[in-house]
Specification:
Number of strands: 17
Shape: globular
Strand order of the largest sheet: 8-10-9-16-17-13-11-12
Number of helices: 14
Mean pLDDT: 93
Largest sheet: 8 strands, mixed
CATH topology of the largest domain: Amidase signature (AS) enzymes
InterPro entries: Amidase_dom, AS_sf, FAAH2, TAT_signal
CATH class of the largest domain: Alpha Beta
Helix content: 25-40%
Number of domains: 2
CATH architecture of the largest domain: Alpha-Beta Complex
Strand content: 5-15%
Low-confidence stretches: 1-29
Protein name: Amidase
Keywords: Signal
Pfam families: Amidase
Organism: Streptomyces pacificus
Amino acid sequence: MPRRNLLATSAAVAGALGLPRAATAAPSGTAALHLAPAHRQVAALRSGRTSSRSLLDRLLEHHAGTNSGVNAVVTLDAEGARAAADRADRHLAATGRPLGPLHGLPMTVKDALETKGMRTTCGSPDLTDHVPGRDADAVALLRAAGAVIVGKTNVPVLCQDIQTSNPLFGTTRNPFAEDRTAGGSSGGAAAAVAAGLTSLEVGSDLGGSLRLPAAYCGVYALRTSRGASPIVPTRGHIPRPPGWLSSSDMVTLGPIARTARDLDLLLNVLAAPSPADGPAWSIRLPSPTRTRLGQYRIGIWADDGHCGVDSAVRGLLDQVTAALRAAGAAVDDSTRPVDMADSDILFQRLMYATASATATDSGFDADVRAADAMADDHPAALFLKSRTMRHRDWARADEDRQKLRGTWADYFTDHDVLVTPAAPTAAVLDQTSVPVPQRYITVDGEKRSYFAQTSWINLAGPVGLPSLVLPVGRTAEGLPLSIQLIGPYLSDRTLISVAKLLAPVLPPAPKAPALTP
């Protein structure tokens, strides 16, 4: 539909609702509001400078011209979103009060999160026709806050890859270069935010699935803290299969956005107890106690023999170190809080163990027989022996995890935040057509394991620490680079505050071409 007709339609809706015409006529300064950060969109919705329907219609117009180039949004419910936007506008007109902190804001969610009445496939052919009758708990929180769910973003099959492609919807392309991966498993989510198809997203993270795509697509992401329970409820996330009430003990959900301020906005909505715990529990994450970079004690872990980084990433960490020192922060650039190799192996053991919960009985029995007959030095031994470990072995691995948490806690008595690379390189070439055993990445000309992409961001995974990816600078080819901030348990808001303070003193990250109106 031509733009003039979209605006005319929105103006007619506004007239019928009794809203001021200025809310839908794209007044000066709002023409590109659909590409603005979420906090600006929310402010415009609350002030009446735009309506939810007008903002949605402009966003859908952007989808029509942009999504085919990145293939990030794979299910679009324009009709349902328009109905929800109209309801939000009617409510505001009738009461003068917003529905919640995301009142009328159009956004997408990862196709791993169940959405009532909207197809949720998790990229699996077995779930082609799965239309849930109930929202995932996190999606219910979004709707209660007033969000308008526009559609679902692409994932690899059952979220089991670190790039994003599946037989149902194909491959999601990086918004900066079509031959590069958008990462996975929240590749569609990160690409959608980077390309302006949504201002906010909810991703999930077990093995870097939230933060690696954010790093490759040049956007912000927060892996939220996780103790015995997550601070963002995970019921309704696939995998596990539809109908399961439990999830992996390392899975977290968290926000993806184009600014640190927007991470805060969405975290305020998502950080909540599960519905069963709601009558008695509340989640109140501590506020930052410092207001300037110069007040922070910051560790810098710029490189490691277990997962060396390329020259561009190392140069970026040097810039970050210099900027922090110039700001007066107490910088420790010799810090090594844990042994990366040992942490990585423990993470893999726990990840493989939890992933076996949904295996078929016959399939698991076959894995047990194969693992029992396999030598410890076999290339597949770590996977199979971890996947089939006895409960006694898991309990001991869990004890190792608790000891590792204690080591991190000791580290954070002398440091407030740890800065590391987010990945060894910028976005790598997409390898969808290459069998997994034959995939690899190249770091300064050296072939490395395909899964080395996640070694840095997996430092936080087994111990439940919050971890934030912050886009900073670019490669010579124009690809975004990123760093990772790790903080002590429940310091999620502190990490966001540090990201806000860091952004103005570091090289800006590039914007994807689709984000330029």
